[in-house]
Design brief:
May be involved in the folding of the extracellular lipase during its passage through the periplasm. The protein is mainly α. Helices cover 63% and strands 0% of the residues. Among the domains are: 52-142, no CATH class; 257-344, no CATH class.
Length: 344
């Protein structure tokens, strides 16, 4: 992804979604960057300190601002629902992390204290006066400790993807940090992700083993796949099918096929409904690329105008709201802006 392109081409972008496990192994997908919110967590706790603290250690509610408006990068969106179990307690589910990751999208707009206050307010909007409210605040405190610990890793935990030993060490290190800071929340937050990363690493290890013949590699990879849980195996089969379709799309694009010809070819292999979805995705992608490119050019003019950081950020946020009017679009653009900035 480039600073101005907004998104990768359709086929390549779909491939990215298909191999997210390897991206995470390399240290670029586990919110390592999200820890750069201005130093330690709100409590000032060192990342290596025990995280098993009660609700009283959660962030002070006095910090909640009176305004109920969303930060600019989240304008037009709404927070994911925090799940509850049958007893009204916060359910130990990945959806809780999704809620906090949504809030972290606003960290470029807020100070560390402002981000804490925003999270407190968003939790209260859903759970005010319930036992789950204090539980959610405690989990936020733990998650902040996790992110702070990641931010303290050398080079933000970046790993040479060609060094399988370093990849294994990085996975073990992140798993240890997650367990130390999140406790029994580490499994719902990162369990499935960590399992997938270790599986991908095992596949890489087999594929790169020079002592194995191609037949032996195929045999071991097949045996490894059989160790997958049934639902994971079914998901992997769907991914393989999608990759085959993506390869076909890429070849059609490379050959300069017209949209009608591409749709006719995809209809034969994917079926009419899937082909229609691909065609719509292409149209949406082209529209987004065009609007994001126009926005990025205007954003660059603002960035080069010599404004104070506050005025610059305010003008860029206002520009996003003018250009991206559909729900979630401004959030997406802000996320792409941060990704572009990290590559500069």
């Amino acid at each position: 992804m480039t600073a101005r392109g907004g998104r990768a081409p359709l086929a390549r972008r779909a491939v990215v979604y298909g191999v997210v496990g390897l991206a995470a192994i390399a240290g670029v997908a586990m919110w390592s960057g999200a820890g750069r919110h201005g130093g330690p967590g709100a409590s000032g706790e060192r990342p290596d300190a025990p995280a098993a603290r009660g609700p009283a250690a959660a962030l002070p509610q006095a910090a909640v601002p009176a305004s109920t408006g969303l930060p600019p990068s989240l304008a037009g969106s709404s927070a994911p629902r925090l799940p509850l179990d049958a007893g009204g307690h916060l359910a130990k589910a990945r959806a809780v992390r999704d809620f906090f990751d949504y809030c972290l999208t606003a960290q470029s707009d807020l100070s560390a204290a402002g981000l804490d206050a925003f999270v407190v307010r968003e939790i209260a909007a859903q759970l005010d006066g319930t036992v789950a409210q204090a539980e959610a605040l405690d989990v936020w405190h733990r998650y902040r400790a996790y992110l702070d610990a990641l931010a303290k890793l050398r080079d933000d935990g970046a790993v040479d993807k060609s060094d399988l030993g370093a990849l294994q060490l990085a996975l073990d290190q992140r798993a240890s940090i997650a367990y130390r800071t999140l406790g029994d929340w580490s499994q719902p937050f990162f369990g499935a992700e960590q399992w997938r990363q270790r599986y991908d690493l095992a596949r890489l290890t087999i594929a790169r083993d020079p002592a194995l013949t191609d037949a032996q590699k195929a045999e071991r990879l097949a045996a490894l796949e059989q160790q997958m849980p049934a639902d994971e195996r079914a998901a992997q089969q769907r991914v393989d099918q999608q990759r085959a379709a993506i390869d076909q799309i890429a070849q059609l694009q490379k050959s300069g096929a017209t949209p009608d010809a591409m749709r006719a070819q995809l209809t034969q292999t994917l079926g009419p409904e899937a082909a229609a979805r691909v065609a719509q995705m292409q149209q949406d992608d082209a529209s987004w690329q065009s609007r994001y490119a126009d926005y990025a050019a205007q954003r660059a003019q603002i960035e080069s105008a010599g404004l104070s950081p506050q005025d610059r950020d305010a003008q860029i946020a206002a520009l996003r709201q003018r250009v991206f009017t559909k729900p979630g679009e401004a959030v997406r653009a802000a996320s792409l802006d941060r990704g572009a900035g990290s590559m500069q």
